[in-house]
Amino acid sequence: MDDVLRFALLGLGLGALYALTAHGIVLVYRGSGVLNLAHGAIGMAGAYVQWELSAQHGVPYWPATVCGVIASALLGLLTHLLVIRPLRRASSLARLVGTLAVFIVITAVAVKRYGDSLELVPGKLPTKLLDIAGATVSEDRVWLLAIAVVITVGLHLLYRHTLFGLGTTAVAENEGIAASLGWSPDLIAGANWTLGSALAGLTGILIVPVIGLSVSGLTTLLLSALAAALVGRFSSFPVTLAGGLVIGVVQSELTRFGSGVTGLASSVPFLFIALVLVARGRALPLRGTFLDRLPALGTGRVRPVPLVLAVVVALVLVSVSTPLWADAITNTLVLSLIILSIVVVTGYAGQVSLAAYALAGTGAFIAGHAAADWGWPFELALLAGVLGTVPIGLLFALPAVRTRGVNLAIITLGLGTTLEAMVFQNTDLATTPGSDGIAVGKQTLFGISISGVDHPQRYATVVLLLFVAATLVVANVRRGRTGRRLVAVRANERAAAALGIDVRAVKLYAFGLSAAVAALAGVLIGFRSTSVVFADFASFDSITALGLAVIGGAGFLVGPLFGATFAAGTVGARFGDLILPGLSDWMPLIGGVALVLTLVGNQDGIGREVGKGAARLLPKRPAPAPELLSEEPEPETHRAAPLALRVQGLTVRYGGVVAVDGLSFDVEPGRVVGLIGPNGAGKTSAIDAVTGFTRAASGTVRLGERDLTRLPVHRRAGAGVSRSFQSLELFEDMTVLDNLYAACDRPGPWAYLTDLVRPGRRPLPAHVLVAVREFGLRDSLHRPVGDLSYGERRLLAIARAVAAAPSVLLLDEPAAGLSDDETRELAALVRRLAEDWGMGVLLVEHDVDMVMSVCDEVVVLDFGRRICAGTPQEVRRDPAVRAAYLGDLEPEALA
Ligand SMILES: Nc1ncnc2c1ncn2[C@@H]1O[C@H](COP(=O)(O)OP(=O)(O)OP(=O)(O)O)[C@@H](O)[C@H]1O
């Protein structure tokens, strides 16, 4: 029992440090919306400054401490001014990677200056042993707890009750409005960076007496601190403190009572938090969720002739290379494969995953055991490693189903670190007797030795060929239907689901494929020498790999090769050494600076520039055929399946607000039903509930004979209910044609596999051809959506919903912002959709003239309740409707 208390008290001290670290991260996040991956490094820098001044230059402790804190604060301010501020219009991925670049630069400078060793630093806090309720604990833990509580209360008061705190909250909630009230978002962000980083320095100085001073030491705290920040939702200081303390105590108790299971203590609290986050996440983002700018994407088109030439040249170079160069080529290619796995999951599918090395290690682990325990030959072990990692990749994808952005990045990093701590660092699992890893021996392929030790050139050849094969597979995916789905989900999950795309399946697929590519890299890393050593698979290296992916261009197939060149041990480093001997020692620093420059100068990476250059050099290929547009589709092929939508007693509640109250209506095939009412009457909520975006508290939704009430969004869309959005929600980084394809492609589950080898492009179905003609999109098919005029965008949004071949089409304010002429054309189009296509249309619209002219029936809502329904004439004359909505318009004006 004494032990329980003692370890709890010890844990409180540790937890206090987690909380203090987390507070600094929260400050920066609140002030500028950036997750600062350099937080630990900034704190470490402050601790080094303090140590150098006091231990080496004889400066007294407290002045040295003040200097350390100021150094960290300055580093934070510089990070804001030089990296984050220039990136304020960039994607949040670019800003995240910006902090990573700062992390790399600070770490590289620190390693150069202080080396890798661990310094033991005496602290100033008293370390007398205290007896608390029978348990003995060192006094410094109590002090740490007290300091954390005082700082938490201080921060809480500062952000609740001062002008600065209120300004920070205002900026965090809405930068535009805050700026119009006179708050400078820039100043606020700078102040928060400075304050948060000063706190990092102070925390660093407080921590080093407990854990020692080393370059990598503070990074390991990062994960627990991030977990505490997640608990406090990156905003509440008291909750963050509580989170940090609970994590500290649980870890401490597990260290004592966890029966020696490797990695249990560091993993369990994190896993718990990940579960909570996933549980409180949402399958689809809410309406109005801010859509981020995304890194640019390549087309995935591969030119066979230049590719074959490049491969032949590379093979010749490998065969004539010295062992050192062959090793450098292998290093470059395996790292490129790791980065390629990031291109799939982050570049294409938009999911920020920080688990590349954990998945690579899993591949090596499985293949290693297959070879060492069961004597499998290289090719079979490789296959086992790659395929066996896919289910683990799917496991990593589960959080992505319900969380996104920063939360997902932290969870995947945590899961990877858990895998590392519990499996890779577990000597029972990850070593074979007499070896420091899993002894797999020397490899042969078809009877020929390809041992990386004896024949580095041969090994590099195998790696090269597998790299090319993997790149071709990823290129196929990018060009195929699957790739379109990945990009659609990346661009806009809500719109993708509304078109029948199973967002969850797409994310699982991206993680699965990415895991397979990472595992391939892992096996090739592991089997290069005679034993698979897991020091090669440090989870935190995944962060660096993401940075390299961004340098190369996360959406481009050539990006990995360029990104990898900036890492130590690669071809780039060797060339650097040729130009300037010893340059490779500076590679991490050069990589970090290159990352900052790439981000600030061109957030889309080198791959984009290379793509543009290649397009200029290579002969132009004609644009893809205009998809059968010359052929006139057979008459009637575009008719919708005639199914009626029946909505009964639909109620939608948001907390205490009843947005829709027992609404019933039918939409028959071939008829247009208007749904009108004042602002806030519940019209969009009704569409959301019918299409599955909002859960209905009660009521039923049926299409034909089918009950849709419990189905998820994409299955309702698949059944025949399609919608447009008030805010359009087009896939901005696709062409018009690809927007339409994303809606009409209905690949079966096998397409996920066949696209890997044969992407194929189906012609547009007949009904989409008719839609292209009807909506006047014929000449715009190959234009990016961003180039369309406002009116064209509105038409495309409806055409895309029509391309999903619905029986019932729900249009949410389609005429908003259109001119009178455009509105008239749209009205005629809506009528044709009903009469010629046989669709049922539900039209939500504030343009009363339009509603009255096209609708067969109108339903009027007020405060969520149906106050009237009937023909336009009946509705127009209804006194309740005139009082609630049509107001004092004269009946003639409405005629
Ligand atoms: N996610 C939400 N959380 C809480 N309340 C919400 C949410 N979405 C909508 N509401 C509330 O529900 C009510 C109905 O809103 P809704 O947007 O459905 O109305 P609407 O008729 O479509 O309005 P408008 O014509 O302005 O688009 C409003 O009071 C709105 O404030």
Automatic annotation (TrEMBL):
Give the keywords, sorted.
ATP-binding, Cell membrane, Membrane, Nucleotide-binding, Transmembrane, Transmembrane helix, Transport
Pfam families per record: ABC_tran, BCA_ABC_TP_C, BPD_transp_2
* Main localization (coarse): membrane
The UniProt entry, under InterPro entries, shows: AAA+_ATPase, ABC_AA/LPS_Transport, ABC_transp_permease, ABC_transporter-like_ATP-bd, ABC_transporter-like_CS, BCA_ABC_TP_C, LivM-like, P-loop_NTPase
Q: Does the keyword Lyase apply?
A: no
Q: Which domain of life is it from?
A: Bacteria
For this protein, the parts annotated as crossing the membrane are 7-29, 61-84, 96-115, 142-159, 193-215, 221-249, 261-284, 304-326, 333-360, 380-398, 405-424, 459-477, 508-527, 547-571, 578-600
Q: Cellular location of this protein?
A: Cell membrane
According to the UniProt entry, its GO molecular function terms are:
ATP binding
**Membrane topology, from the record:** Multi-pass membrane protein
Residue span, ABC transporter domain: 645-888
Annotated protein name in UniProt? ATP-binding cassette domain-containing protein
Please give the organism.
Streptomyces vulcanius
Q: Taxonomy-wise, where does this protein's organism fall, top ranks first?
A: Bacteria, Bacillati, Actinomycetota, Actinomycetes, Kitasatosporales
